[in-house]
Amino acid sequence: MKLLFERSVSGRRSDLLGSCDVEYAALPEEFARKNPPALPEMSEVDVSRHYTELNQQVHGVNSGFYPLGSCTMKYNPRVDEDMAALQGFTGIHPLAPKDAVQGCQEVLDTAAGYLCEITGMDGMTFQPAAGAHGEFTGVMLIKQYHEKRGDSARKKIIVPDSAHGTNPATAVMCGFEVVNIPSAPNGCIDLEALQAVLGDDTAGLMLTNPNTVGIFDENILEITRLVHEAGGLCYYDGANLNAVMGIVRPGDMGFDCIHLNLHKTFATPHGGGGPGACAVGCKEFLKEFLPHSALMEGGDSIQVRSFSGNFLVVVRALTYLLTLGREGVPEAARNAVLNANYLMEQIKGTFVPAFDRVCMHEFVLDLSSYKKETGVSALDVAKSLIDYGMHPPTMYFPLIVHEALMLEPTETESKETLDEAAAVFRKLYELGFRDPEFMHNAPHNAPIGRPDEVQASRKPVLRWKKEQ
Amino acid sequence: MSYVPSTAEQRKEMLSALGMENWKELYTDVPEAMLVEELDLPEGMSELEVSRKVSGMAAKNKVFGTVLRGAGAYDHYIPSIVRAVTSKEEFLTAYTPYQAEMSQGVLQYIFEYQTMICELTGMDVANASVYDGATAAAEAAAMCRTRKRSVTLISAAANPDVINTVRTYCYGTGDELRIVPARDGKTDAEELQKMLTEDVSCFYVQQPNFFGQLEDADKLGEMVHEAGAMYVMGCNPISLGIMKTPADCGADIAVGEGQPLGMPMGFGGPYLGFMATTAKHMRKLPGRIVGETVDSEGSRCYVLALQAREQHIRREKASSNICSNESLCALTAAVYMAAMGPEGLAEAARQSMAKAHYLADALTAVNGVDLVYTGPFFHEFVTTLPESEKVLQALENAGILGGLPLEDGTVLWCATEKASRAEMDRAASIVKEVLEA
Q1: What is the mean pLDDT of chain B?
Q2: Which of A300, A457, B1, B199 is 20 to 30 A from A376, comparing alpha carbons?
Q3: Number of domains forming the structure of chain A
């Protein structure tokens, strides 16, 4: 496909601004640009067709099944988009006077109230822009808490080895040392391993529950109690809240602060990688440490980005929450769990679940023995799924399972879709024994074949250049 | 309503396929005492009801017909094609392009975006975006740190939200932030010279700065390099349509708030942090980066490149924890730049600058209103304003959002190409009326 720049025709343009009705001001020579940026020169129809063509080479949730584990690719309702596009929201300057932004404040307050109810927290901020950014915010609450108490020896954050990579990376950004602890054979926290590392230097524990293998840790109360007894705080990574919203609350599990990915659990679109939005909640005693904007509120609190966060994403999440309401929230969670268990059950007998037990909203397949028998890897299966119009599951994560494929169907998939997906998995399972070569070379019907990723990183070409 | 397509009958079938009768059997791992009986939330709503409810909230905001306020969020004209493209459902509902074969459209638009950011800034490499201009500045400062050089310097003439965000990130890693004072609305070069000690990793300057003034960016850059530190510039992307590139000013890293490139003000977000650097520092850039390669047939295609820097591979050794970024906003900026073209972008810059100077002239014609800083400015400027509260209220009553009152009693004004001569005349006459009443 042609790049924008290859469609550019010198001198082509649209008149978008019209003529200037005041005199131009002279930019002093020493501040002026030597050459204009080589942006493409296009008419509106060129732009429209270019992006329509690109859009046709994207698989979105609306295109088909997208069981990308841990990412909660549920359907994104269109009414949420309409609400976020209202001029009464888009046209609001973040520094407009308070009396002119009462509606925005109502959106934030209402969403915060509902999310506190769902999570059992007392305070909530929407300033962080994404999950990892929320982790940073939340762990900074823990840091401030210990520092304010003069407890400066608490330098360690405990992270299970099944955690998302963002957890350890976050702890380091907050100045903590990461203590990785191995998981128990059932994929949950190994209580002995936890106890062995807890001590006077423990700042806190970062935990996802249900965890990254899709299991609710039944020892959760014991875990949070142990951490608290050691003087640490418990951070809840809300990446997997979709399984339990309205069923059980992180606050009741003993967590002190949490983050919620609004773009996962609360159905706002993932936008090709973002924008997400993140709510960080905390118990009463941590509220004083929440971030604020220097320009909007002043003061000397921490601040993780400008203004009050990805507000228009919060509008979408609130619209979704209002739509679901009291009954809809747990109903969504129950069906997310039901769908995952049903799909796992339908695949069983072919590919093997890494943990053969009731799962939450997602489950992990372990293809290591299959690979030994057939030579077909998790990657080969993932690429083969593409030929069936299905987005592959998350591959090779969590790290504690080898040849992992992690599937999260979400509640917005129908039984028919799950049945069809299971049939494809079963078919591919057989195919691996018959024609592994075919699967090594998959996909066969995608716009491109497998890309050479090694070349991309060894000889990086990260921008277009004319002389190419 | 919960958007669950399965019927009650189907749910029952699925449960019985699992050998279960009741959904509670799905949650046997959850200690029973912890189960929530009922949430204290309102009942769910139909689409019509929810639309009425949320529209009602939007209606409680006041949309100003004329916006003469900037300070980090700018009211530029957004061409219609921008929203038409960015609301396409596939672009909207896909996630990070982990599977290149199924996401060439996303990968290519990011590659094009990276190219345009490089063109705009004159730098060699750009990433696929970070959260906003403030986090871009904080991430840039983190790129510069070494064991020997860990102190970050930032100009007091930078946006306060940016300063505070950088301060927070520094506090996180335990590194020091020192603020270089401003004089006459610009970075005090003499003070900077004194503060450029051997432990300084980088200096961040904003161009045009928070007060709208144009910094002597080349000179500051030379000083920074002479001291062996890195030079980070935070730029307004619209101004780069006509202003000297950060590369030409000697910047090692160029960052900025991308919101002016087609994103609505939206009460503060989602916005777009752009980041670009020289080839030398490419592997220190945080976040996603898309690269060109070939597929198994030898055809050109795009993939996520240099992933060995990132948290999902490096974990605690990653350059940043960023995972989700602002991809759809990067698309917005790309469509905006493609629609405007080099001439359109330059015109937006020229007109914004022209209007701001017209507004400054009109306001300062009123007795008691004077420019606080006398250096050249782009599209923002600071004035004195007696009885500022009363004046700004009068403007608001007339549907005009006036300048931003600053802590020292002065007011920071802004104009973009959207402000018409008639609107600015009207604003100036209201200021005059109030002050001469």
Answers
A1: 97
A2: A457
A3: 2
